[in-house]
Amino acid sequence: MIPKMFLCLTILLINICLFNNVSGQNEAIRLPKSLRPYKYFLTIRPDIYSPSTGFPFSGSVIIDFDVTSTTNQIVLNQLRINVRNFFLVLAPENTIPGANVPGWANPIQNDVQQTVVVNLNGTLTEGAKYRMLLIFNGEMEVASNNGMYVDYYDIGEVRRYLVASQFQIDHARKAFPCFDEPEFKAVFKVTVERKRTRHALGNGELERTRDLGDGWFADEFAETPHMSSYLVALVVSDFEKVETRSPNGKLVRLWAQPEKAKYLNFSAGAAGRIQDWFEEYTGIEYQTSKMDHVAVPSRGGAMENWGLIQYGENELLYDPENSVMANKVRVALVLAHEIAHQWFGNMVTCKWWDDTWLNEGFAAFFQWQPLEAVLNWDIGLVQKVRDEFSIIKQDETSLSLPVQRPDIQKPSQAQSGFSGFTYRKGGAMLRMLEQMLGKATFQKSLKKYLADFAYKSAITDNLWNSFQTVVEEDGVTLPNGEVFPVKEIMDSWVLQRGIPILNVTRSGNVLKFDQQRYLQPDLPVPSYTWNIPITLANDASGAGNLTTVHMVRTKEDEYTSPSSLGSWFALNSLSTGYYRIKYGSEDETALINKLKSDVNAVDRIYRAQLLDDAFSFTSNKYRKEVEALSFTTFLKQENTAGTWVSAINGLSRLYERFTDFDSAEIGKYTRSIVDTMFNQFTFEPKPNEDDFTAFSREIVSSAACSFGNSDCINKANELVNIYREQKENRIAPNQRYTAYCTSLSSGDKIRENFFFFEEQQKKTNELNYNEINDLVAAQACVSDQTQVNMLDEYLDRIIKSEDLYYSDLERVTRLVALSASTRGRNRTLERIDELWVEDFPRGNRATVLLAVARNCHTPFTIQKVRDQMTRRPAEGGDEIVYEEIENALKANEEWTNENFSEIDDWFRDNVQANVDEKEIFSFSLFEKNFKKSMKFLDLNEHF
Ligand SMILES: [Zn+2]
């Protein structure tokens, strides 16, 4: 599953759990293990045909089950459904003669414990097979993305209702009574009842339809594989489909509301081929006769239900005319993630949510791999930047969690098993293991794991055991010749939280290592040690060496290279190891100098890692700020936009601080680097270029226009002029925001462009949400440089509300956006008193002031904010925000005193002489554009 904003939810749920756990019985319980279901016959009738009277459902479920230990009680899960009848008989498969069929009392429902309990007046016979029948009804929620729920879309004035489902983590129990924990796997034979105006989809293919009379039909679906209850799914809708066959001949259908079905084409072209990729990689054929992918209007994220994957529309639909490349990447990643689950998660399932990473870590690992093969995307660097650098940043904080979570035992804790640490760090752990064992042994081990646990559930030690068997067959050893101990090596990574920093010093051919946990400043450092694989790149080895030459297994350790290390070396050379490295200063200088003369001496992924490490060390106070900058000196030779992203991540923190000073040195320095990249990419797309060139161009051109590259600025203005005059938008979706924003911060048509964008924004229909976002966001780039004083006019429209031009929320959002630019911020600060008027949303004044304060660094602007706080003391609940403002100002003062002049001098010394000083630098354009183009990096959090 890719959940929607799970991180916040997780934090929230932990709080709720702590609060609710006062009494052990006062929450959902785990089921006893004495009964094991093996087959369900579920018939369900969701009624969406009289919306004015609600959305009831009714159904019946027959559950055939084994008795593994004798009991006089049947306990199932249910939540907020009404179980009306219960019957018990022996199952047709029972082979125990004389098995006892006791009588039963009325079912007792408990919505706190989320159970239905049937007390028996005798015991069930151990080893016998029984069949129970329950008849039930309930009410569906609307657009809840939870249980079996009602969703809708509108065609003009007409609202069309549909039924969708989301049963993970534990919502199947809201649709029918069941054994709703992942280890209780069974076969499900599902029948869905619907009226003529809709069709139904289930996990299996439709086998037959019966006419029930009264306008109702029963659609009977093929039996599912042996699977967990959270994978059961259904959709009842009038959606339209695109039907394809994978190259291996499997039926693949994609569904969306009729007006949006045309946006299914990209997914339709990729889904079948990705599915076939997994068949080939695992050597296991896809398990059911069809695969449906459905875009459900109100949901976000996606859910891997076996044979019936449900997505948010943004996760499955792609509009080539108006969507940026980042959307395309996201759609492809989500497709691959959910398809990966059919093997990893659906076929082999974590036994309980303490091992969620066995589902999600694998899906996160495999969401990238097929894209290289199927879409020909060279995506390894994007993966590194998007998935790993972002999770490492969280792993350095006190919010870090382990990948494997033995602490999760109660149902109320299960949600916290779905965190970035199970997904992205879990994926990183598998990538590191693949490097240590080699691709062939890794793949063979996975095949064994799938074969050992197909249609069963597994725990982490099961995975390590399958691997260990293959490792021994293949004779994989540690560098010292010892058999590779899979569990021992990996436990240090998946059971401990955090990431290590490895300090490396060299004397001759001996490398000395010292490891400790890498943490943000002021956090206590625990005495963890990890098993850290060392790979080595130098002149002798080449850039892409993946051989583990040494394993650091103690806090301090050393390695003697059998041959000369040469004049420079780099460790973790393809960045497959999950750790940061701090080299001794001479070795660091030698490495940077090597890259300045030959940037390809190490792989580009490692170059990105070097920059990420360098800026992380300065932000966590492991080094002085200025020391990271020497790593950017090789960027003049850099040829990969993705490596740039790493540098920009770090430099953007400095830009934010420098915008408040009148120092242009940082801008000039960056210009001298970015020009080389821009000349390679140019502004406009070239015919037939690949997707990633287009994606890189977005990053490079936003930097080039922001830092005053005149070719870039002229081209942007020219394209916007054509758009305005001819009403024909020839700007590629990836370049639109850059072009709009540039045309509002430079050029001679700022005023015309501003109002043209506003007019367009109102006309754009709802399908082009990317276009609307671009237009609205670009308006914050407006500059007051020109005679028309457009910035003040824009501020008038936001602050003064005579015409109620913008909603309250928009007024605040637009002011916050303006505060990112020097001119916007200064002008807002000059006019800040105007916010203290009756009709300006009171609670949001402090929010605007905070946004401004965060970017104030000079004594002058800092004093202005403080004056405002004195003049307008905190009112009604704003005290906390005021405290935050004062903290931000103090931190900025401190940073400036410690770092500003040193860094400014560094830039002055390193700027190339030939940069034109007249050019403008639009930090706000750069900042916002960069963040926007990187939006898809937040995939897990945003879904
Ligand atoms: Zn998933």
UniProtKB/TrEMBL annotation:
InterPro entries: Aminopeptidase_N-like_N, Aminopeptidase_N-like_N_sf, ERAP1-like_C_dom, M1_APN-typ, Peptidase_M1, Peptidase_M1_aminopeptidases, Peptidase_M1_dom, Peptidase_M4/M1_CTD_sf
Classification via Gene3D superfamilies: 1.25.50.20, 2.60.40.1910, Neutral Protease Domain 2, tricorn interacting facor f3 domain
Chain residues that bind Zn(2+): 337, 341, 360
Family indicated by similarity: Belongs to the peptidase M1 family.
Gene Ontology MF term list: metalloaminopeptidase activity; peptide binding; zinc ion binding
Protein name: Aminopeptidase
Sorted UniProt keywords: Aminopeptidase, Hydrolase, Metal-binding, Metalloprotease, Protease, Signal, Zinc
Domain Peptidase M1 membrane alanine aminopeptidase: 270-493
Residues of the ERAP1-like C-terminal domain: 568-886
Site label Transition state stabilizer, positions: 423
Cofactor: Zn(2+)
Region forming the signal peptide: 1-24
GO BP: any one term: proteolysis
All residue ranges annotated as the Aminopeptidase N-like N-terminal domain in the record: 38-231
GO cellular component assignments: cytoplasm; extracellular space; membrane
Higher taxonomy: Eukaryota, Metazoa, Spiralia, Lophotrochozoa, Annelida
EC number assigned by the record: 3.4.11.-
Cofactor note as given: Binds 1 zinc ion per subunit.
